[in-house]
Amino acid sequence: MKIPKLRDLGEAVKAIFSRPYPSRFPAEPLSPAEGFRGKPEFRSECIGCGACAAVCPSAAIIQSDDRELKMRAFELKLDRCIFCGLCVESCPVKTGIVQTREFDLAVFDRDELVQKIERELMLCEVCGEIISTREHLRWVADHLGGLAYAHPALMLAGLGERGLTEREEFAVDQNDLTRADRMAITCPRCRHLLSLKG
After folding, report:
1. What is the reported pTM?
2. Which of 98, 122, 146 is the last residue of a domain?
3. Euclidean distance between CA atoms 196 and 57, whole angstroms
4. Which residues contact 172 (CB under 8 A, 6 or more apart)?
5. Are 40 and 84 in contact (CB under 8 A)?
6. pLDDT band for position 40 (50/70/90)?
7. Claim to verify: residue 116 and residue 134 sit in the same structural domain
8. Partners of 62 in beta bridges
9. Are residues 40 and 116 in the same domain?
10. Are residues 61 and 112 in the same domain?
11. Are residues 118 and 131 in the same domain?
12. Are 85 and 135 in contact (CB under 8 A)?
C-alpha cells in the first residue's frame, strides 16, 4: 500500500472541516471568467459578407439570399451552436459577430434561440448575379482607400457612403455592352466581358 504524503493528508483534513464551494447558480447570478465562450450574437457592425456562415462547423449560421427583395438574411440557431468561436475569428470587421459571456440559454420554445439579421444585396446590373452586400462593398472601399477608385462598383459604393454621389441603378443590355457601361455595377464575369469590348 502506498503511503500518502503529508501534503495530501493536510489537504484531505482541510477539505473535511471547510465549507464546500459550490456555485449558488441559479439562486444567485454566476459571472463567468474573462474569455468565456458564451452565446454568439450579431451586432449592427455586421457587413453581411458571409464568412461566419462559411466556417461554422455545425451549420448554426444559415445564409439565404433573396434576389427579388435584394436582401441577404442570416439566421443564427443557438440550439445547433457548439460555441467554438470560429465565426468570431473569421469576421473581417471583428465586431460583426461577438461571443458574449451569456450561457444560460434554457427555453421552452426553440424559436427563441434564433437570431436574424438582414443586409441589402448588390446585384450585377448586366446579368443580375449577386455581387455582395452594400455594406460589404463600402467596407472594402474604405479599407482600400484610394485604390478603390480603380473599380467602379467599389468607387460608387465608397462615394455613396460619404454622400458624394446619388446614383439610380439602371438596366444594362447584356447583348449590347458598350464602353459607357463600365460605370455599371457588375460582377467579375461581366466586368471581364466589358474589358474585352474595350
Report:
1. 0.74
2. 122
3. 41
4. 125, 126, 181, 184, 186
5. no
6. very high
7. no
8. 75
9. yes
10. yes
11. no
12. no
